[in-house]
Amino acid sequence: MISGKITLLEGDITQQQVDAIVNAANTSLLGGGGVDGAIHLAAGPELLVECRRLKGCKTGDAKITKGYNLPADWVIHTVGPVWHDGKYGEDEQLASCYRRCLAIAEQYEIRSIAFPAISTGVYGFPMERAAKIAVKQVMTFLFLENHSSLEAVMFVCFNRQTYDCYRSALKEILSNE
Ligand code: ADP
């Protein structure tokens, strides 16, 4: 626990007891490796059936499905940018993923949401940079804008290195306030 509504933990997002978990999907929304594969495995085959009906998702955007066999009621699927060298709008696209997920959460009156470190696996986004973007977007949404439903945001870090990056990013943003 770091700052009121924000929690940081090391673990597996598929195990989290929250209203919604976020999936770092690809544009097809038809499943992949990494966190996407883990979410589909834990949710069961009905998730893929619903995803097929969504007809894909653009980079920087997000779409919601039910959670099926997951502890979470909802999965918000977002498509992060593939990292090139930072000059192709990757930062803004990643920021957009967080904003779109949070906007959908608000729309569905979701009270708790868990995010993985979007784009930092196969898509190669540098972890430190991604953590700063994640933390900034969530803090802005929670504390600077006037939103009602969302009470808790969890960053689920798959390993210690990821956890340390998020902890530093949170410390930095809190010390600048
Ligand atoms: P992307 O294609 O967006 O990079 P990945 O799934 O390859 O997505 O990786 C995104 C992040 O999710 C990585 O930091 C990876 O370590 C992490 N991750 C993988 N599996 C899980 C899981 N079960 N729970 C939480 N985070 C996970």
From TrEMBL:
Residues 1-174 form the Macro domain. It comes from the Bacteria. GO terms for molecular function: deacetylase activity. Pfam families: Macro. CDD domains: Macro_OAADPr_deacetylase. This is Putative phosphatase, C-terminal domain of histone macro H2A1 like protein. It comes from Allocoleopsis franciscana PCC 7113.
